[in-house]
Design the sequence.
């Protein structure tokens, strides 16, 4: 993990943009780990920043979708950090509970559809 | 697949509830396949109906989360049917594009976090 | 896909063992595809034959476990072929329905456990 | 995590049913975590109780299928708790070893089938 | 799917870069589908182009790694297209067979490690 | 976990072969855990040894493919041990960074292909 004080100019430029964009003074471990490979750090941050901007979907909805994927992939780090991010954007306990219920149910019916080998309906093609 | 006309009373009761709840005259293949095991049909429908009701999250947000999970699991049937359902609830092309961008990015960073073996930050524990 | 008539001696030896072990006259597509790389064909068949023999678990239980994994991985070929194999060993409609119900539920609670970031209980360590 | 002593009436009713059904005096962490969202707690417990009852499949077989799915999904909590549950229902070391062997092999051949892009045999459709 | 002739200027600029970079006259379906959301098309292509360039790893090795991931995720489209791409870069039948053998084995031992709940050795931390 | 000193003759024979083949004096935890079921230990070691031998692909390439799969499956133990193994065979920081970039990207585009429901091009069939 590369700390801010040890960072090369290339890495520090990304760290500074993270701090400014997020209006924070904290670089989380994910970025410090990616800094081991600066092109991956820069590319990942720039893509993430662009994708998570407000657009047709609002930032909280995007964070909850991010969390739904992270839970489905069983990524412990991502589940922890995106739960925090979604709460920071306004996700309440009730919203979290409903989100988890939908994620759990989707995982269940995904397997039922595959297990019963359901063919796609003509109207959904 | 059990068609409406062939359905037992137990199965038909579920089909009727699907038709009434969704205000449609169409039973999609997923339910016709699950009807091979009536307790699973009934339980799955009742749980799904309850989870997808409006609550702290609106139905469109729930459908997009459902779709995010289905895509992440690579479930073809579920991706097709929940894309249709989300569009039916108002998902535009622009929203679909942003949803896919978030889903793709989350799948990428989930693997980067696991691959670089990133430890959870103290503040996210 | 390598058909029996075109098979090299090395491949044919495996095919003959499949036919004799399974008391069938049919080589399914999986083996014909693997025959493109004979060492993988031989190793896979020999390991599979050994693992699926009766032991502390009976062959039907093993087939149902195989099917549970295949459904969870969303492998269409494997779901189709192991559903057939389990039925051939005695899986009834009722058993299939209960198997799918357990597989679906396990996929749901797996995600709930990850999503709520549940710590392992002291007694399960 | 909601402890028994802090639980609301709604949550305590579920806890009491878990204790009575399982003839135990221990609520494991999974349920204490789900209690953060009582409707998800209640629904999950009721569905699980119903699915894991003896039926066409016996409870030990159901637990081993549950474990096979949990291992395949890489769910650490679920693997730990369902290994304990299966042992509690009579899974021996030998049965556990064979179960893991089948799970490992199924994961291997699932990928081989997908990687060699094997088409489903006519007879399995 | 957006064909070249129907493409907006923004989409056509990406298509032209794909054709020039790959020295081909063929746009494959993946890009035509992504063109439904031009920012995702452009970002995905630019990132992919940059990542797949020769670097510390040669392009064939990168393609085989891409294929290994695609097979593990059970992505049918990706397995088909990256098998073709790897063959185009020199992957022989023998290399393909060994690649699949490693992918299959890794999937098997991943589950065994999770199933036996193996703790990370001190020296690998 | 079965230590060398406690191992039965059957287990010790495998341990001795691991030590000799790898020219090391260290048995890692994976094998000590598998030793709980000696047939799985022996079969897994023998298959792994055979698959990871130099062939059409060199051992470092095989290790990186192994790592790509392990990261994609989110297997923490396997990611730690195969990162170490790949480094032992010559993987540099730069190669590791590029490997992770490809793995991340492949996971992203796998989901985009599934999410946009891209049909396989005629020429890739």
Sequence:
């Amino acid at each position: 993990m590369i700390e801010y004080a040890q960072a090369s100019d290339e890495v520090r430029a990304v760290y500074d943009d993270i701090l400014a964009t997020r209006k924070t003074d904290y670089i989380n471990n994910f970025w410090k780990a990616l800094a081991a490979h600066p092109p991956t750090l820069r590319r990942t941050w720039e893509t993430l920043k662009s994708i998570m901007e407000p657009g047709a979907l609002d930032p909280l909805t995007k964070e909850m979708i991010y969390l739904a994927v992270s839970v489905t992939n069983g990524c412990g780090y991502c589940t922890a950090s995106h739960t925090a991010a979604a709460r920071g954007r306004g996700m309440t306990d009730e919203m979290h509970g409903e989100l988890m219920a939908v994620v759990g149910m989707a995982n269940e019916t995904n397997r039922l559809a595959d297990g019963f080998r359901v063919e796609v309906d003509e109207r959904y093609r």
